[in-house]
Amino acid sequence: MSTRHGINWDKALQLHAAERQRFIAARPQSQQLSARADQHLLFGVPLHWMDDWSTPFTLYVKQAQGASFEDVDGNRYVDFCLGDTGAMFGHGPAPVARAVAAQAARGITTMLPSEDAVWVATELARRFGLPYWQFAMTATDANRFALRWARAATGRQQLLVFNGCYHGTIDDVFVDLVDGKPVQRASLLGQVYDLKQYTRVVEFNDLAALEAALQDGQVACLLAEPAMTNIGMVLPESGFWEAAQALCRRYGTLLILDETHTISTGMGGYTRAHGLTPDMMVLGKPMGGGVPCAVYGFSAEMAQRAQQAKREAVPGHSGIGTTLTANMLAMAAMRANLAEVMTEQAYAHMFALAEQLAAGLRAVIARHALPWCVTQVGARTEFQFCATPPRNGSEADAILDSDMEHIIHLFLLNRGLLITPFHNMLLVCPQTTVAEVEQLVAAFDSFVQQVL
Ligand code: PMP
After folding, report:
1. Is the RNA-binding keyword given for this protein (predicted)?
2. What average pLDDT does the segment 406-412 reach?
């Protein structure tokens, strides 16, 4: 018998074969659409990532509402993936749907602001504590633009990231540490620049390495998630951010916190909850209730430096912004979402359910004495295939196992439960119920029992 992460791997493979058959049998319409899609969609999907799910063919959605969705074959699912955070506050929130419909009838994009822009910026300043804001269409773009402002404001070229980070498909950050050395990510397609030239990378939670990377005074900014969430979750050790912020200040390096996922921590993100003081902050995905948009904020000092850089620059295109940025539809969606959906009440519900979920998963793991653990950042929960939580990107990377993830994810999907296709992240939204969390925990337990 071969074992993997404490389970019987032969049994897991047998179970996988059975689960594939079960998936296929219950989804003839999805199978038919997948066959048709192969003719005109490259890779058979509108975005090639949609091939990364654990399913034998693409699962087609008919409708999504609140915490659940229905596929084109009439199967219903509780959604713990929630569009990998885009729908973190529920699918199609009614206030956003209403605002979008009303705004669409009054015009969608003019390359001029609507009044909503003023309301949204005022609200962002109140929530996140940074006084000035700009907009983008995606978190990727917001990060790209934040980096441009940071380099322009400091006159420095180097960028620093943590090993195993993800900030969207912004090229600069795809440099990994392999055996302690920076290496450009080999899987990047069509990338012709040597990214290592301007990107430095150190392990998360390693203050000595952070200082070594900063001390020549050439690093414009550190771009980081306050807790890593994209290589499995990695939490900052106690005191890490206080010391890291002090190092950034000492060496004149700006701190950009990407809160796109850690907005799960609370109304003001991880930053507010833990009293951090970044120079810039980036948020994307759920900000417009699923309507494409992103935001990035500036401290008063950083805003002044950015404006000065623009004033002193050669007149012409800054390389920052896109035509549809800050369009009236996105602004209306953000206003409704911030005012009526991303509320204290919504967070309170999500926190309670995430606690229930984490406790339930931990109980199953303990009952079966599995060498797994559970990590949580507010409304975001993850089970990981290691006995103690990883401390950095290398440790987190070492325990990723996509074969194993695919088997668990497909097993859950066949029981009407969707979780994020990358690693094992689970989100709850304001409409998720106690019974749905119990259902997830029971299915997780049933999976474990079948592969012990
Ligand atoms: N930042 C973080 C922390 C993310 O997790 C992601 C996406 N997973 C992004 C940025 C990029 O978001 P988008 O794909 O919407 O541009």
Report:
1. no
2. 97
The contacts found for 55-63 with CB under 8 angstroms, 24 or more apart, are: 55/23, 55/410, 55/413, 56/20, 56/23, 56/24, 57/24, 57/27, 57/30, 57/31, 58/30, 58/33, 58/34, 59/27, 59/30, 59/413, 60/29, 60/30, 60/33, 60/34
Per-position DSSP letters for 155-217, written without gaps between them: ---EEEEETT---SS-GGG-EEEETTEEEE-TT-SS--S-GGGTEEEE-TT-HHHHHHHHTTS
Residues of the chain with CATH 3.90.1150.10: 3-79+343-451
Provide the 3-class DSSP secondary structure of residue 441: helix
Q: Where in the chain is the domain with CATH 3.40.640.10?
A: 95-341
Could you tell me which CATH number the domain at 3-79+343-451 has? Answer: 3.90.1150.10
Cβ-Cβ contacts under 8 Å for 274 (sequence gap 6 or more): 226, 241, 265
| Closest C-alpha to ligand 1, atom 14 | 168
Fold observed for domain 95-341: Aspartate Aminotransferase; domain 2 (3.40.640)
Residues 363-374 have a mean pLDDT of 98
Cα 139 to ligand 1 centroid, rounded to whole Å: 5
pLDDT score at 277: 98
Cβ 260 under 6 angstroms from ligand 1: yes
Quick one: pLDDT at residue 422? 85
Specify the pLDDT at position 412: 98
With a 6 Å cutoff on the Cβ, whether 168 touches ligand 1 is yes
**142 CA → ligand 1 middle, Å:** 10
Q: For 315-327, how does the pLDDT look when each residue is reduced to its tens digit (9 = 90+)?
A: 999 999 999 999 9
| ipTM of the prediction | 0.99
Quote the pLDDT of residue 372: 98
Amino acid 54: pLDDT? 87
Q: Which two tokens stand for residue 450?
A: 């079948």
In angstroms, the CA 172 to CA 156 distance is 15
pLDDT at 1: 80
Cβ atoms of 162 and 347 within 8 Å: the answer is: no
**CA–CA distance, 119 with 335 (Å, rounded to integer):** 7
Contact 226, 281 (CB under 8 A): no
- Cα-to-centroid distance, 169 and ligand 1 (Å): 8
